[in-house]
Design brief:
Layout: E1 2-3, H1 10-14, E2 29-30, H2 33-44, H3 51-63, E3 73-75, H4 94-106, E4 110-112, H5 153-167, H6 170-173, E5 175-181, E6 188-195, E7 206-213, E8 219-221, E9 233-236, E10 243-245, E11 255-257, E12 261-267, E13 278-282, E14 287-290, H7 291-294, E15 299-303, H8 309-315, E16 316-319, E17 324-328, E18 334-339, E19 348-354, E20 371-378, H9 382-385
Parallel strand pairs: 1-2, 3-4, 14-20
Antiparallel strand pairs: 5-6, 6-7, 7-12, 8-11, 9-10, 9-12, 13-15, 15-18, 16-19, 17-18, 19-20
Helix pairs in contact: 4-5
Length: 387
């Protein structure tokens, strides 16, 4: 159980954890408001130095109950604060949000994602920061229409970061070790998450090395201490084509990081395959299709990797149900479903679903969760009438 203490003081927030206030047991944890205010400064507005992040971590032991120290609930925005992308914060700078999300999902704490952040919502002060996910109610800007869009680029980014947390336990409970910060302004922030043991049956030791650049220009991080022996090859999870080798020290080699970007390294021997995801769908989510032209318009799903075709076809369904045929690209990463001659009925909301049993053909990983999308068929003459 965690509580909300709307304050930037670690002493104030920490006093509500455990028995810090001197009375009976209080809260297991609290939302990390002190970190939130620093996140706005460092990532959203990108004007503050990165040392303040580490200063907050350094203040935790003296102010929070020890049982709460590693499970503070971290967040980028919530229902009481302007959205990260609002005009007073990041101002719709999606790259800053992508960078902040890497921090949220790799730094210490329990990440809490506010609904709509994964759809690019950008509302300002209350109530405009409480946009509806569904269509037709309180909405504006990016929140117009139905927003349960699982192919949105930000949704895909969050899904990938969540996948990393599932695959690499150090990102969940690993010790945070600061490796670099910039006390003078925007720039580099580097840390490792180190796990001594893993009860889930994975590697006995694991280190995930993260380096973020909040500045606009490229920055180079000099060699940083590593728990890996010299000669160990590391892979950048955000770009698996990039590899570095630990040098004598042991330490990392110098690493150049582009402006407003991140790199997340793990030992090559510990890299595990990602779960497959649907990366694109046609018709587009929540689009409107003229039934006169789309009676046999195919539904097309694009995947992040080659798929086991039989498992995907068995997991696929539509509401309303129609008969049809499947076709695949030669690489088995794109599937088309074409309805029979009758096609989808007019003036109907068509929902398509892919159950979690669909698996890839590379590692036999299944979808982490079911995929859904929808589109609406109009009357046969709606397109001609401009409706």
């Amino acid at each position: 159980m965690f509580g909300e203490v709307y304050d930037g003081s670690d002493a104030k927030c920490g006093s509500y954890t455990g028995t810090r206030a001197g009375g009976p047991f209080e809260l297991d944890s609290v939302v990390d408001y002190p970190l939130y205010f620093r996140i706005n400064d460092v990532f959203a507005r990108a004007t503050g130095n990165t040392r303040q992040l580490e200063d907050h971590y350094a203040a935790i032991p003296a102010n929070y109950d020890s049982t709460a120290a590693m499970r503070l609930v971290t967040f980028l925005d919530n229902h009481d604060q302007p959205r990260f992308l609002s005009s007073g914060n990041a101002g719709n700078n999606l790259q800053r949000l992508r960078l902040a999300l890497v921090f949220l999902y790799t730094a210490r704490g329990i990440p809490c994602l506010y609904y709509g952040t994964e759809q690019g919502f950008n509302g300002g002060n209350d109530p405009y920061d409480r946009e509806d996910m569904f269509a037709g109610q309180f909405e504006q800007g990016p929140s117009l229409g139905d927003n349960f869009n699982m192919t949105h680029p930000l949704f895909q980014w969050v899904a990938r970061l969540n996948n990393f947390r599932r695959l690499y336990p150090a990102l969940q409970t690993g010790e945070h070790s600061n490796l670099w910060n910039d006390p003078n302004g925007p720039g580099l922030f580097a840390y490792s998450r180190r796990l001594a043991t893993n009860s889930a049956g994975g590697p006995r030791t694991q280190e995930v090395f993260v380096v973020l650049n909040t500045a606009n220009a490229n920055q180079t991080l000099t060699g940083r201490p590593s728990s890996h022996p010299a000669g160990t090859r590391l892979v950048n999870l955000l770009d698996p084509r990039e590899r570095i080798t630990i040098v004598a020290g042991p330490q990392t080699p110098s690493i150049t990081v582009s402006g407003t970007s991140a790199k997340v390294f793990v030992a090559e021997a510990q890299v595990r395959p990602l779960d497959p995801v649907v990366t694109g769908v046609t018709p587009a989510h929540d689009s409107r299709q003229d039934a006169g032209e789309s009676a046999r318009l195919p539904i097309v799903l694009r995947f992040s990797k080659p798929m086991d075709t039989g498992s995907v076809e068995a997991a696929f369904s539509t509401v309303p149900t129609v008969a049809g045929s499947f076709a695949w690209s030669p690489s088995h990463d794109t599937m088309s479903f074409t309805p029979n001659a009758q096609g989808f009925p007019a003036r109907t909301m068509v929902t398509l679903r892919l159950d979690a049993g669909a698996k890839d053909a590379v590692s036999s990983n299944t979808l982490c969760a079911a995929f859904e999308s929808r589109f609406e068929t109009l009357s046969a003459d709606a397109n001609a009438a401009g409706k």
